[in-house]
Amino acid sequence: MKNNISLAFALMFCGLQTANAQVSENSTLFKDIMAIDSQIFELGFNQCKPGVFEKFTANELEFFHDTGGTQNRDEFLQAVKNNICSTPNGKPMRTLVPGSSQVFPLENNGVLYGAVQMGIHRFDTKGADIAKEGYTMAKFTHVWLIRNGQWQLKSAISYDHQHKEVEPTKSFSIRKVLAQPIKLLEVTIASLSFAIYFRQ
Fold first, then answer.
1. CB 182 within 8 A of CB 195
2. What are the angstrom distances between the C-alpha of 37 and each of 155, 170, 174?
3. Contact, 103 vs 23, CB < 8 A?
4. H or E element in which residue 62 lies
5. Largest Cα–Cα distance in the chain?
6. What are phi and psi of 87, to 5 degrees?
7. Burial category of 40 from C-beta neighbours within 10 Å (exposed 0-12, middle 13-18, buried 19 and up)
8. What is residue 30's predicted lDDT score, i.e. its pLDDT?
9. Three-class DSSP category at 34
10. pLDDT at position 179, please?
11. Cβ neighbours for 106, distance < 8 A, ≥ 6 positions apart
12. Separation of alpha carbons 51 and 153, rounded Å
């Protein structure tokens, strides 16, 4: 009897795991979440249009940052205004890393009420020399809820921020090549050997 109960629990657990598996990139849910992500970050964050954040964030928004602490909705909106959008030419610019996004549905008795979005984003400084200053990579997890037919961001976690340096590219110089002797001809006769070199 005990084994049957354990087996039934295991099967139920597996069923729950597979029922809310990651959706495909071709699904409507994935496309909807990506469209909202584009609006809230491309328009709201990168182009500094605060009305977009106000539209797509829930009143009880919770924001967690691994180095900046926690914020509620009012604090988050104020931080965007004061820290992100106060210096247009030196502001961070957010880019979603292609192929990093994962979307998982949240359902209640088969009815979709939200989604979990996970991914990696990159932050560059607008107008800065990336080769000198580098950039930042971070992971994020967002919980989206459907409120009155509209998606709203309920919680956001941005973590594992890592500063990356840009590796300098090796330049090719024809002058450096020509500065080296170029062997034009090498002749070996019996045990004697000689070579002719050309130098620019």
1. no
2. 14, 37, 47
3. yes
4. strand 57-65
5. 95
6. -125, 90
7. buried
8. 98
9. helix
10. 55
11. 20, 112, 113, 114, 115, 116, 143, 145
12. 14
Residue type, 118: M
Kindly give the residue spans of alpha helices, DSSP state H, lying in the chain. Answer: 2-19, 28-38, 50-56, 73-79, 130-133, 174-179
> What residues are paired with 151 via a beta bridge?
146
For the chain, residues with pLDDT lower than 50 are 2-18, 171-174, 177
- Assess contact for 23 and 32: CB atoms under 8 A: no
Backbone angles phi, psi at 74, to 5 degrees: -60, -45
DSSP state letter for 134: -
- 14, containing H or E segment: helix 2-19
Which residues are CB-contacts of 200 (< 8 A; sequence separation ≥ 6)? 178, 179
Residue 158's nearest CA partner among 179, 175, 141, 133 is: 141
Tracing tokens 């002797």 back to the chain, one arrives at: 181
CA atoms within 13 A on the CB side of 141: 7
Tally the C-alpha atoms within 13 A of residue 190's C-alpha that lie toward its C-beta: 1
Query: What pLDDT does 166 receive?
Result: 81
Per residue in 36-80, pLDDT tens? 999 999 999 999 998 999 999 999 999 999 999 999 999 999 999
Question: How far apart, in whole angstroms, are the C-alpha atoms of residue 73 and residue 85?
Answer: 17
Q: Which pLDDT value is given to residue 197?
A: 56
Taking Cα atoms as reference points, which of 67, 75, 54, 44 lies closest to residue 136?
67
Which sign, positive or negative, has the C-alpha torsion 31, 35, 36, 37?
A: positive
**For residues 33 and 19, what is the distance between their CA atoms, to the nearest angstrom?**
19
